[in-house]
Amino acid sequence: MKTRIENPDVWFLVQHRQGKMEEPTFGLLGEAQRLSRDQGKVVALCLGWGLDEELNRLGSLGADRILYVKEERFAHFHAEAQSAVLAGILAKETPLFFLMAQSPEIADLAPRLAAALKTGLVTRAVDLNINDQGHVTAVQPIANGYLFQELKFECRPPYLVTLLPSVLSSEGIAPKKAEMVIVESEGGFEALKTEVKRLVEPDPETLDLEEADIIVSAGRGVGRGEAFQVIHDLAKAIGGSVSGTRPVIDWETLPYERQIGQTGKTVTPRLLVACGISGANEYTVGMEKSQLVIAINTDAKSRIFRFADLGVVGDVHEVLPLLIKRLRER
Amino acid sequence: MSEFRYLFSPLKIGSVVVPNRIHFAAHMTNFGEDQKISERHIYYYRERAKGGCGLITTEELTVHPTDHAYDKLVDAFEPEVIPGFRALTRTIHEFETRIFAQLNHNGMQGDGKISRLPVWGPSPGKDPIFRETAKAMEIEEIQECIASFTKSATHVVEGGFDGIELQLGHSSLIRQFLSPATNFRDDVYGGGLENRMRFCLEVIDSVRKAVGPDFTLGVRLNADEMHPQGGLTLEEAKQIAIRLEATGQVDFMDLSLGTFHNLFLVEGSMHTPLAYTVPLSAGIRSVVRLPVYCTNRINDPHLAEKILENGHADMIGMVRALICDPELPNKAREDRADDIRQCIACNQGCIGRMGLGFGLGCIQNPAVGEEKTLGMDTFLSSPNPKKVVVVGGGPAGLEAARTAALRKHKVVLFEKNKEVGGQNLIAGKAAGRQEITGVTRWLVSQIRKLDIDLRLGVEADEEAVLKEKPDAVVVATGSVPRTRVIPGEYSSSEVVNTHQVLTGEVQTGHRVLLIDLDGHHQATGTAEFLSDQGKKVHMVCPALFVGGKLGPLQDLYLTRQRLARKGVTFTPDIAVLEIQGTLAKGLNVYSNERIDFSGFDTIVLVAGNESCDQLYFALKGKVKELYRIGDCVAHRKTDMAIAEGHRVGRQL
């Protein structure tokens, strides 16, 4: 027998940057549709500015309702203010779920929201399930992804979940006609303890590797001293952060914070370019979850090629200058 | 503030607070004397306490005379052990470190060669290593065993220990009762999990009553036997953990894995990933609230910190890591992590010596077991600094230079290659052997910090050495592969050696015959290296099987598995008497049958090295002090190179 859930609506957060919706938003929409099981409404909640046209796309993609809190200062992310506004709305409406996509911003926002609402939050989830009794479980990877644990919500809705973008898919969404509700912001920003003064673009050279979108990684095969400059050149050309294997750190070519691997950082960038790296297990453990891997190595039998989407057999000192030249011409 | 937030936070374990999360977990040492704790033990454990680890658990101490699996086992059931216990615990308590005693009965994982008693097990059966049929314990014997665990526990309390760890791990009678792979009893001690746990629970209950509610008592649970069929699995271990926690009598859960069916998992070598047991501790920790320990191949404080930070364990077991560098905790805390001499899991100095009955050692740390004379307190500057010339920058020369420079001698080091490391770097090129170069990595990191005149790319001859006007000369010029060991007509491209193959100096043809007179990684690692390049490799050896020296290192099983999977084939029992071109003429050493091995493009000969001792003899009698060390004396392994380098450095 199915237990009736008070409010079966599934809400999700519209994630945007620089006036454009980010790709995971569409994946959240797909996930929300699946979870609504045709019982509840799929509601997109947006805190932003200048997104009117963008938001209309969500309707045609299958959202039932779009709540748009239009506020100029929400053109950019502001964890304190946004979590307060979100908490106010969610406490009133109490949907079953509020879904977000894992990102550095959401890692800041979601715990604040959970604390304000005094409800449960599962971060980095890869799956969500509701059984016939209405019990909700989330699946989360642990032990470097060796294991998965199932977590049960033992609180009242809304259940807060941040999903890993890599599991989100927008395929198979049925289009609908959505109603757009514009919510006027109530203000009250004077009481905030933080204020956005200025936006500082991260310098990829100094950005923490764990947050970097693009990483150029160098191994023993690159060589020391001047030979290493080609790595910095490539990083500059593609806006990447520079990293290395342990031998490179041992040479003191890069500081320890730039080491990837079991005894260094674990990274998950969109793109990782592995240069002159043989691919010992101690290294690959730290980068195997990268979305796209391009490996360049002289030895076609290198283990690194098992982890590469694109493998280039060649000397980095021949391949990279050509690539950098081409990139600079664009 | 230390970058290791969690690693250096205290933890309450039962009634005890340990100052940090680094656990020098239980392990064999073969240091026992007369079945008691020895002075050597005390100096050995003291070195690790001084080095800053939070908790020490002693090696297993046996609880009953039927358990005498090896000569040096300490008998906790005899009251005579108490004075030794007290001496040990008093010494450790000079530091913040806490110390627990591990109590164990190895059950059927032993034999009666020493005890002249039948070995006890839950059911008749043979352990795969000892191969002696166990006697199924009678009810009275089960009761006697529980009583002897209890009596031993009271000796531990009297001995001044901070806690007790009961061994339920890879080698233990209690685990043999827990496991459906060894327990086939049809009484109340066998069958379902509840029955298989009965002996364990009765031991815990009896020990707890004897030591009182406030004494810290825990277990080392086997989190997964990884038995090919029917053993304990992680899922069942979780049920056991839940049940043990529910007794309210257990304060912590140290973990272990595997059995003697797969000892290579218990003592994972460099061919096993770092921290390979994290999924087990994370799994057990997900079902209990007790502190859970994670051990095995955690050789780096950053890795340890990550495991704690991720919530995959509460304590980090480091055994080989602290054998290799007792000061690892202090170095990490003092922001000197780059000074840590990391364990490379070669297993040659530690595990490789244990099963053979020798005292524990370490190829990188010559002070292991010799802490009284070589420990960290014993390093003194020379009262009479000398000018020392070291020739050769392999492990022996580097260690001699390092030790001498630390003692304030003025050191000049000549190395003919552009980088130091010698054969250690070549060894690291063999398949899966990269970590062996950790030996050079650490020595280089230390050499760079010392005042040493390093002359790279300079081949020192007699004249060059004498020009330095040295007070002492240390010749560490190493060795090179022997050539033309086997008679016959063949060219230098038809018969090559491993150095040439591994350094890329020669490319072999597609079909390779590898003649293994080595039995060690040099042969199998080169075969695998060639196989990885797509070559078809056949190995012949005069021994019963290839890789004969890998057994004690726990590398035999996985090596043979990898070679077999990669299509390498073997013919054992063969002495190659003659080579003509690429044709090897062999003799079966048992049947005396002659067999030709033909159809190969290249022969790789692994036949040992000859010393490069020309410089030594040229200098003999011409300098005030002359030493030679390492392979320059005779071709051996890294352990001897380091030991001799260290000895000379101290002696100067």
Describe the structure.
The complex is a heterodimer of chains A (330) and B (652). Chain A has 8 helices and 17 strands. Chain A has helices at 24-36, 52-60, 79-93, 104-117, 229-238, 246-250, 281-284, 316-329, and strands at 10-13, 16-17, 20-21, 42-48, 65-70, 97-101, 121-125, 127-130, 136-142, 147-152, 159-163, 179-184, 214-218, 241-244, 271-275, 292-297, 310-313. Chain B has 23 helices and 29 strands. In chain B, strands 3, 4, 5, 6, 9, 10, 11, 12 and 13 form a 9-stranded parallel beta sheet that branches. Chain B has a 5-stranded parallel beta sheet with strand order 16-15-14-17-29. In chain B, β3, α1 (39-50) and β4 (55-62) form a beta-alpha-beta unit. In chain B, α3 runs parallel beside α6 (198-211) and α15 packs parallel to α23 (638-651). The longest helix of chain B has 20 residues, at 139-158. The A-B interface holds A 142-144, 146-147, 149, 250, 256, 262-264, 266, 280-282, 285, 301 and B 273-275, 278-279, 282-283, 286, 300, 302-303, 306, 310-312, 337-338, 434, 441, 444-445, 532-534.
Poorly predicted parts of chain A: none
Arrangement of strands in the largest sheet of chain A: 7-11-6-1-4-5-12
What is the global morphology of chain A? elongated
* Radius of gyration over C-alpha positions of chain B, nearest whole angstrom: 27 Å
Strand composition percent of chain A: 25-35%
Helix segment count of chain B? Answer: 23
Q: Distance between termini of chain B? A: 40 Å
Low-confidence stretches of chain B: none
Largest sheet of chain A: 7 strands, parallel
- Quote the average pLDDT of chain A: 88
Largest interface: A-B, 17 and 24 residues
- In terms of structural class, how would the helical and strand content of chain A be classed? alpha/beta
Main beta-sheet strand count, sense and barrel state of chain B: 9 strands, parallel
**Helix vs. strand class of chain B:** alpha/beta
